[in-house]
Design a protein that fits this description.
This protein has about 270 residues and is mainly β. It has three helices and 15 strands. The strands form three sheets. Strands 5, 6, 7, 8, 9 and 15 form a six-stranded antiparallel sheet that branches. Strands 10, 11, 12, 13 and 14 form a five-stranded antiparallel sheet that branches.
Length: about 270
């Protein structure tokens, strides 16, 4: 992946006393809004198409049969996963009720992708640094439409989603790609950052995390939840709140707040 510039808006938040994230400890949030209709082409958000008008009256039997059919899923006619790619079976990402497969290529072009059981292969460029170990995790989230993906190179994580049979990078208020520094220190040097998920309120939410060093040598962990901001791919992090206080430096929650991890997700690693 080619390194992406970190979102200015997010970095500004990180410099504040907040930018809380998710320790890889459970916590969650509100039910996700219903997803719009899917399309099998491209990665752009596409509204549901309008069916051609017909004056024929459907029979009750035909209507009942159509209503009982499962969604078609995403099928773009591609079925071949790139040779040598790392793969893992994941949750249903396209709404047809069947498990799908996530993969990471291990040679150029560096890509992350999904192969659907419906018969499609969809990819997105891995734009992080071109060398070293890259990690990705993917999870079905609550409170934010689409299937969430975090891809990191150990220094930063980009946040994407899979929706309408395509990938979109989440964007900050200024339109730049949303990303989170991994293990980055605040200007004062007393806090480091990461990204993860929680199910604190009953469903999976994406969180930015911050491990704050106290004067007594212990750490407080602050979380901030990823939320939509009203544009098709727009997202921002809520005001942070302290989730854990007075943790020892060796506590797993401190380490998790400095990495990219999700206890509920399927994870892949590939070395470039």
């Amino acid at each position: 992946m080619v390194r992406t510039a970190y979102c200015g808006a997010l970095l500004a938040v990180l410099a504040l006393p907040l930018l809380a994230g998710c320790a890889a400890t459970p916590g969650a949030g509100p039910a996700a809004p219903a997803s719009p209709a899917r399309t099998t082409a491209g990665s752009a958000l596409v509204p549901a198409s309008t069916a051609a008008h017909s004056t024929a009256t459907p029979s009750p039997v035909a209507s009942a049969t159509a209503a009982s059919r499962a969604p078609a899923g995403c099928d773009n006619g591609r079925t071949a996963i790139p040779t040598g790619a790392r793969t893992v079976r994941v949750h249903d990402v396209d709404g047809d009720g069947r498990q799908d497969t996530a993969f990471f290529t291990t040679s150029k072009p560096w890509e992350f992708g999904f192969a659907t059981s419906a018969g499609g292969v969809y990819t997105t460029p891995d734009r992080q640094t071109p060398t070293g170990a890259h990690h990705a995790w993917t999870v079905d989230t609550d409170g934010f439409p689409g299937h969430a993906i975090a891809i990191d190179d150990g220094l930063g994580a980009v946040l994407l989603r899979f929706q309408h049979c395509g990938f979109q990078q989440l964007t900050a208020k200024d339109g730049s790609g949303l990303s989170i520094p991994i293990g980055a220190r605040s200007a004062s040097g007393d806090a480091t950052t990461g990204v993860a998920c929680n199910d604190q309120n009953g469903g999976i939410l994406i969180e930015a995390a911050q491990a704050r060093l106290r004067t007594d040598g212990r750490y407080d962990i602050a979380w901030s939840t990823l939320e939509p901001i009203g544009t098709p791919t727009g997202a921002s992090f809520s005001a942070a709140g302290v989730r854990y206080k007075g943790l020892a430096a060796t506590d797993a929650r401190v380490q998790q707040a400095r990495t990219s991890t999700c206890w509920a997700a399927h994870t892949l690693t590939a070395t470039h």
